[in-house]
Design brief:
It contains 13 helices and no strands. The chain is mostly helical and 555 residues long. It has a domain at 1-194.
Length: 555
């Protein structure tokens, strides 16, 4: 999925950012960027699930610059320029040695040719080209100069191409930085937030407080609702009881009025019926009241037991949480101290011992390098002496040739013997010349090797000192950062646990204050139900019955 089809592009608020990034990634793809484009596509697709820090690490603008530089410096044209530069670097050496080889062969042929005067030196004859058989010395030197100039121009051209690549990569990275800032801002607005400062911790603590407060408030509402329901139920029972009494009273009054208008027999029967009805009603009402009272008592007992169990469990749970938090903090402190004592301190001691051993080895290595440098200087001196001896041999060979020429001119009778002697002398001179050339090359190589060893020794010592110093600084900085981080985490954990403990203690105190009041309310409700069960029901018709009896007797 490309950037133009990602979730960032589908968001209308950030679609312009996705479009700009897509255009910039197309330009980067032409320059050779591949991995960076994949990272940007992933961030545009998952920008809501990332933090700004993670998004910036994934983007890595310097990684884009490295990819562009690697891609642009590995093109076919750059490889062709490097290959041509290598050819021009070896061409002067090859040309020189070929010219020397041809010149030496021509000189040997010239010396071995009978009847030649053999008066010219090797350089003079080579400059003349040995009568056109080889390239003159001037032409060979000119070719070497041309190849060296071409080598220098190719080096400068390669440096120019590399600088162009670096400028192009830096320009693209600079243009990319503004788009990266916009994308990071988008991630910061829509992505996952991190706890970065004390305010975030305060929000977390406030969230815990709000949860505890809401739990306490919900428990309080449940208790209030239960008490309200009990009161409502008791009021309804009282209303039903009053209504029942009112209905029975009206019925009794009607019966008494009808009985007074008939005769005494009917009145006695009515009285008996009313007594039976009274007993039945009183028994039924008593049973109803007892049943209601028992039901209410059982409900109140269960509620009291449940409430006490809940309060006890809540108090024990809160105490367990406080104890667990205290034990966690104690265990954390113990683990940190044990880590510092058992791991960090031995590591530091071992590192110091290793550093001391490394310094001792470096001192020994420096002594060996000094000895090698001294031996190299002695070898260079010996090579120089060998070069001087070779030059003396060459001069002596030239003198021998001249002496042979003089002897050839003066002793015509010994021409054949002189020719053989000259051939032998020429072979010796050629061998000596070749040996002298090899000795010169060996001495030059030895001096170059000595100089390279000395420079390598200097660079190695400087790099080792710099590396050791950098490692020491990094270790000290890491140790300091570790201590600061541990202290900061301990303070953060202690502060958080202290705040949580205070909130839990406040909650437990509040519940402890509410608990006795709830228990007292339950006891009051029990007492009210008992008082209700002991109420004596007074029937109003007894007094009227007495009046009715007196009236009947009078009649």
């Amino acid at each position: 999925m490309g950037i133009r089809e990602s979730k960032l592009a589908k968001n209308t608020n950030y679609s312009h950012i996705a479009t700009n990034l897509a255009d910039l990634m197309d330009e980067g793809q032409k320059l050779g960027v591949s991995e960076g484009i994949q990272r940007v596509e992933l961030i545009c697709e998952q920008y809501k699930s990332l933090t700004p820090h993670t998004a910036y690490l994934w983007l890595d603008p310097s990684g884009f610059q490295r990819e562009i530089e690697e891609a642009q410096t590995n093109t076919r044209w750059m490889h062709f320029v490097r290959g041509l530069r290598n050819i021009f670097s070896l061409a002067p050496l090859i040309t020189t040695w070929i010219g020397l080889y041809e010149g030496v062969n021509a000189y040997q042929q010239y010396i071995s040719t009978p009847g030649s005067n053999k008066q010219g030196s090797f350089l003079t004859l080579w400059q003349a080209g040995f009568d056109g058989r080889v390239l003159p010395f001037t032409v060979t030197a000119l070719l070497d100069v041309v190849f060296l100039i071409g080598y220098l121009l190719l080096i400068l051209y390669e440096q120019y191409l590399e600088s162009q690549v670096m400028n192009k990569a830096a320009k693209y990275t600079k243009h990319l930085q503004s788009k990266v800032d916009e994308l990071v801002t988008c991630v910061a607005e829509e992505g996952y937030p991190l706890i970065t400062d004390q305010s975030d911790l305060d929000r977390a603590v406030n969230g815990i407080k709000s949860v505890v407060d809401s739990t306490t408030e919900a428990l309080k509402q449940i208790v209030d609702h239960t008490v309200t329901s009990l009161n409502t139920m008791m009021e309804q029972n009282f209303k039903d009881f009053k209504q029942c009494l009112s209905d029975n009273s009206e019925l009794v009054r009607t019966s008494i009025d009808g009985a007074a208008q008939t005769n005494a027999t009917a009145l006695e029967k009515v009285e008996q019926s009313l007594n039976v009805l009274l007993n039945t009603s009183h028994t039924t009402l008593k049973q109803y009241i007892d049943h209601a009272t028992d039901t209410q008592n059982q409900g109140l007992v269960r509620f009291e037991h449940t409430l006490q169990t809940t309060l006890s469990n809540t108090s024990s749970t809160i105490q367990d949480m406080v104890d667990t938090a205290t034990q966690s903090v104690t265990a954390t402190h113990t683990n940190v101290e044990r880590l510092m004592t058992n791991t960090v301190v031995p590591m530091m001691e071992g590192f110091h011992q290793d550093m001391a051993s490394l310094h001792a080895e470096l001192a020994n290595y420096q002594g060996r390098i000094n000895n090698l440098s001294q031996v190299g200087q002695e070898l260079a001196t010996a090579g120089q002496k060998l070069a001087d001896a070779s030059q003396n041999l060459i001069d002596n060979a030239d003198r021998y040739v001249e002496v042979g020429d003089n002897i050839n001119g003066q002793l015509a009778a010994l021409n054949a013997t002189q020719t053989e002697v000259l051939r032998e002398m020429e072979g010796v001179a050629g061998g000596v010349t070749t040996a002298a050339g090899h000795m010169n090359i060996a001495s030059t190589n030895m001096m170059n090797a000595t100089q390279q060893i000395e420079s390598l020794t200097t660079r190695l010592g400087a790099n080792l000192d710099h590396t050791i110093e950098h490692m020491s600084r990094n270790l000290e900085y890491a140790h300091t950062q570790t201590n600061d981080t541990v202290k900061h985490l301990e303070s953060e954990v202690n502060a958080t646990i202290e705040l949580t403990s205070k909130d839990l203690q406040k909650t437990s105190r509040t519940l402890a204050q509410v608990g006795p009041e709830l228990v007292q309310s339950v006891k009051d409700l029990k007492q009210a139900s008992k008082d209700l069960s002991e109420v004596e029901v007074s029937w109003p018709f007894r007094k009227r019955r007495s009046r009715g009896t007196v009236t009947a007797g009078g009649r």
